[in-house]
Design a protein that fits this description.
A two-stranded antiparallel sheet has the order 1-2. The protein has one domain: Na+/H+ antiporter like fold, CATH 1.20.1530. By secondary structure, the chain is mainly α. The N terminus is likely disordered. About 70% of the residues lie in helices and about 5% in strands.
């Protein structure tokens, strides 16, 4: 039986039909979650490439150039006013605000309509994430308590969502989709925990005037939402001012990204039923105005209809959806790789590598991320399931939850970010922490992948 597409082709002149790859946009409908997973997977691979590249450069003849590049002063001068920081600080304090903005959008979506919207669904990943934050911090504290290195207790609490989801997505044929959903929900709660830890425990001094200005700017953003402003530009402009106010307040400036994201409207302008009816009417007009052999550039009515359709699709989507869709790619493919290249370049003395890994800071980070995450997530999940407060995600086994808890020990992006905050004035401990993060992420990624590979084979065998 002829397909609808074949019938459509018969009705039109043969030479006017084009099916280039970019013209197949309507052939496959991709859900927002599938698109999210695809971008996290690709972003994770790019992140890995940049981290490896940074390590190679930092341990080659280009090491001195790399050091100068990272610490190159970059400033903004307007009249007599100057804001100057090193390139590394601009990346970590400025560019990463965009990363936190996307994290905020993901958090808000998950809380409103995602895995965290329903208490019955949310209890397992929430409790697993809490266990996966508390136990690693305790492991680190047990090793470094009473020393100046104790400031790094927050480092092993974080999970890198891009790396972890990317590794799990490589096993997509062997694991149920619900397991990927569980990991995403867990990692997003983990991100929220990291944001709270940064705000509360890694803020050294509060400047009340600047904090008051930040509160006023937050009020303006909330007002934008309440009065129905849907264009992103006003939010971005006030968000930049909020970032500067928080930079001066002592609270880490990147948190302005999360705060701004939470004020982005999550309500559509169009009712879906009204949109559907309007689209059908416009498509009928589009078909009637079609003139064989004439380019759409010459057909003013068709051009007007297409523009109206484009405007309508923007109104039926929420600003939250649109921004998450449009911002995810530049953040995943540009911001995070730049962050990785600027921060992952650590010099490695292979002759003393064993001594480095046995350093209390490196050991605390490694055991916290690998052992602490495994015990915390698996233990909390077991307890919640045993008490009957939650059920396993559809089609998953407890063994697979344990495998995911190993992957959650990949703590690259957020862990390095917290290390930079905690050890800003302790370069040796910062080096040890970064070494521990890289080693732990490698061990956690490989062991988690192998565990889930074997668990998937036993279930399908």
């Amino acid at each position: 039986m002829a397909s609808e597409r074949d019938l459509r082709q018969k009705d039109l002149p043969e030479k006017k039909i084009f099916y280039a790859p970019w013209e197949r946009a309507f052939d496959r409908i991709v859900t927002p979650f599938e698109e999210f997973i695809h971008r996290q997977t690709t972003g994770g691979l790019l992140l890995m490439v940049c981290a490896v590249l940074a390590l190679l450069v930092a341990n080659s003849a280009l090491a001195e150039f790399y050091g100068h590049l990272v610490h190159t002063p970059v400033g903004i001068n307007i009249g007599g006013w100057t804001l100057e920081k090193s390139l590394q600080h601009w990346v970590n304090d400025g560019l990463m605000a965009l990363f936190f903005f996307v994290v905020g959008l993901e958090l808000k979506r998950e809380i409103l309509v995602g895995e965290l919207a329903s208490p019955s669904q949310a209890i397992l990943p929430i409790m697993a994430a809490i266990g996966g934050m508390v136990v690693p911090a305790l492991v680190y504290f047990a090793i470094n308590g009473g020393t100046e290195a104790v400031k790094g207790w927050g480092i092993p609490m974080a999970t890198d969502i891009a790396f972890a989801v990317g590794a799990l997505a490589l096993l997509a044929a062997r694991v149920p989709k619900a397991l990927i959903t569980f990991l995403v929900a867990l990692a997003i709660v983990d991100d929220l925990g990291a944001v709270i830890v940064i705000a509360v425990f890694y803020t050294e001094e509060i400047v009340m005037n600047a904090l008051g200005a930040a509160a006023l700017l937050l009020g303006i953003l909330v007002l934008f939402n309440l009065v129905g402003i849907r264009k992103p530009l006003p939010y971005f402009l006030v968000g930049i001012l909020l970032w500067f106010a928080m930079l001066k307040s002592g609270v880490h400036a990147t948190l302005a990204g999360v705060i701004t994201a939470f004020t982005i409207p999550a309500r559509p302008k169009y009712d879906p039923a009204l949109f559907s009816q309007h689209v059908r009417e416009l498509i009928a007009r589009f078909d009637k105005s079609y003139r064989p052999g004439e380019s759409i550039m010459k057909n003013q009515e068709q051009r007007a209809i297409v523009q109206t359709l484009e405007n309508g699709t923007r109104l039926v989507e929420t600003p939250l959806q649109r921004l998450e869709h449009s911002m995810h790619m530049p953040v995943a493919f540009l911001v995070i790789p730049i962050f990785a290249f600027i921060n992952a370049g650590i010099p490695i003395d292979f002759s003393a590598f064993g001594e480095t890994l046995s350093h209390p800071v490196a050991l605390g980070v490694m055991l916290g991320l690998v052992l602490g995450k495994f015990i915390g997530i698996t233990g909390a999940s077991w307890l919640v399931l045993k008490l009957g407060l939650a059920r396993l995600p559809a089609g998953t086994s407890f063994s697979q939850i344990a495998g995911v808890s190993l992957l959650a020990g990949i703590g690259f992006t957020m862990s390095i970010f917290i290390a930079e905050l905690g050890f800003a004035d302790q370069p040796e401990n910062l080096l040890m922490a970064k070494t521990g993060i890289l080693a732990a992420s490698l061990v956690a990624g490989m062991s988690g992948y192998l565990w889930l590979f074997l668990a998937g084979r036993s279930r399908t065998g």
